[in-house]
Specification:
Layout lengths: L5 H20 L9 H15 L22 H7 L7 H26 L5 H11 L1 H6 L6 H17 L2 H12 L6 H18 L5 H16 L5 H15 L15 H7 L1 H17 L5 H19 L4 H22 L2 H32 L7 H10 L5 E4 L5 H7 L4 E2 L6 H4 L5 H9 L7 H7 L4 E5 L3 H9 L3 E6 L3 E6 L10 E2 L2
Parallel strand pairs: 1-2, 1-3, 4-6
Antiparallel strand pairs: 3-5, 4-5
Helix pairs in contact: 1-4, 1-16, 2-3, 2-4, 2-18, 4-5, 4-7, 5-15, 5-16, 7-8, 7-9, 8-10, 9-10, 9-14, 13-15, 14-15, 17-18
Length: 495
């Protein structure tokens, strides 16, 4: 019987992965979370308007004065998906990027002579709903994993020039680029200990690549300033200002429940290694150290689960190879059948569970009416005081005609200094009864946008005749700031 070629196997595995991610992504009609709106619209603007040198759409943030696209090559990679319906393009890009990352995982196992590569790749679907959830969002995480795995392959093969280039590309793609230096540092330290000589070529080339990527970035030096803000100032500000959910840790019971399969596999592998006193090779030790490192980061911030799971599964795959070879032949088949049953059952369950959860978060059309009204009835560049910082991506998706006050992260407003963030928070919570002067002078806004959940804030607006409601529907309201009370026709609304 003719054995399929490596290319045929690669194509089949990619199509299988794409089908599984598509089963999640296309089970609901729209995007599932906030940031994807921003990413796909930004890529659309790159295609239709050209280079974006500054970012006036976030007026009361650090982005308005020192902007650098921290996802530059990620946004470039999204450009092919901006023809036609943007929501469909975003969903398709999410499927393809996630599939490419897991295909790289599969190929790494095959290239490094780890057996059962397909099993361990599909194991990722069963391992953790949190991991699967993150990989079903339009984020740069899958590209980040792709670059990390590719870098690891260059490291263990001693392809240092390719490592340098990949590290430079990483620094131009996503803010997680320091992880390639961490990866190289761990491998170099382990190699130096084993060989009893300093062997830090991987560290030097990865670090050199990152430095090269930073320097050739067209936003230099503002990109360095933005990375410092993102990596240092934002984490230090967490006690002073709220953040997106992904910056906070999971509740431990939730993390264990959502990722029970990968934790069981992790602990079982460690137990078997201790029982049989197995010797670990360099790549396995590297994965063990990195799995511990990413677990610690996940306990600090949930966004790192997207690295903890695949690197832990890589550790299990490498560590179990010699254990499987040493197992009695008569036990391999029943154990293999049992493990495949676990993967198929939990993988199917997790795909269904994540699809349901994402569908519940789907909000693409929520603010479309208000955003389009503003675009059609305001002057270009008029500033809109948006009452929630995380409403910005959805507004930006539908309306780049206007500018907004805050978005992407509250700390970008907080780090401007002064009382701007404190005033913003107190106004939107309804604690400042007469916010007109602050909104007009400090935020320079001509309009106010709010969803309908801000009861005290909306009550303050309605009590002041200088805020005239121009638009309202069941999701949102728009007010215009006028200098004095005037008689207005009834506000328009849509169902």
């Amino acid at each position: 019987m003719h054995k399929p070629s490596d290319r045929t196997i690669t194509i089949i595995v990619f199509l299988l992965l794409a089908a599984l991610f598509a089963a999640i992504q296309f089970s609901f009609p729209s995007l599932a979370e906030y940031d994807g709106y921003y990413h796909i619209k930004y890529a659309y603007l790159l295609r239709t308007e050209g280079w974006i040198g500054d970012f006036p759409w976030l007026q009361s943030t650090t982005w308005s004065s020192h902007f650098a696209d921290m996802h530059l090559l990620f946004h470039v990679a999204l450009i092919p998906f901006t023809w036609g319906d943007l929501a469909f393009g975003a969903k398709l890009a999410t499927v393809l990027f996630a599939s490419a990352a897991l295909l790289t995982f599969f190929l790494l196992l095959r290239k490094t002579a780890a057996p059962h590569a397909l099993f361990w790749t599909l194991f990722l679907f069963a391992a953790s709903t949190s991991f699967l959830y993150r990989y079903s969002l339009l984020r740069a995480g899958p590209l980040s994993l792709f670059l990390l795995l590719l870098s690891f392959y260059w490291i263990i093969r001693g392809k240092h020039v390719r490592l340098l280039v990949t590290s430079a590309v990483y620094a131009l793609t996503y803010t997680a680029f320091p992880l390639v230096v961490v990866l190289a540092s761990v491998f170099s330290a382990i190699r130096s200990i084993q060989e009893r000589a300093l062997r830090f070529e991987a560290l030097l080339f990865s670090g050199g690549g990152v430095l090269l990527g930073l320097l050739v970035n067209p936003y230099f030096p503002d990109n360095v300033r933005m990375y410092y803000t993102q990596m240092v100032r934002l984490p230090l500000s967490r006690g002073e200002v709220p953040a997106g959910t992904e910056w906070y840790p999971y509740d431990l019971s939730f993390l264990l429940g959502a990722s029970i399969v990968v934790f069981i596999a992790y602990l079982a592998t460690l137990l078997l290694l201790s029982i049989f006193d197995a010797r670990l090779d360099r790549k396995t030790i590297t994965m063990l150290v990195l799995s511990v490192f990413f677990l610690a980061l996940t306990l600090f911030s949930r966004r790192h689960v997207e690295y903890f799971v695949p690197f832990t599964v890589l550790f299990c795959a490498y560590a179990c190879h010699p254990l499987w070879k040493a197992a009695p032949r008569e036990l391999r088949k029943p154990i293999g059948v049992l493990l495949w049953m676990v993967v198929l059952f939990f993988g199917g369950h997790n795909i269904h569970s994540v699809a349901e959860e994402l569908a519940g978060h789907s909000r693409l059309y929520r603010y479309q009416g208000a955003a389009e009204w503003l675009e059609q009835n305001s002057q270009k560049g008029d500033i809109v005081f948006n009452a929630d910082w995380d409403d910005f991506p959805g507004l930006f998706f539908f309306n780049t005609h206007n500018y907004y006050c805050t978005g992407m992260d509250p700390a970008f407003t907080y780090l401007l200094g002064g009382n701007l963030w404190n005033d913003y928070a107190r106004i939107t919570l309804g604690k400042i009864k007469n916010p007109y002067d602050i909104i007009r002078s400090d935020f320079r806004a001509a309009y106010v946008f709010s969803d309908t959940s801000h009861g005290p804030f909306l009550a303050n607006l309605n009590a002041d005749p200088r805020f005239v409601q121009r638009y309202g529907d069941r999701h949102a309201q728009v007010y215009e700031l006028v200098p004095a009370a005037i008689e207005e026709e009834p506000s328009s609304s849509s169902p």
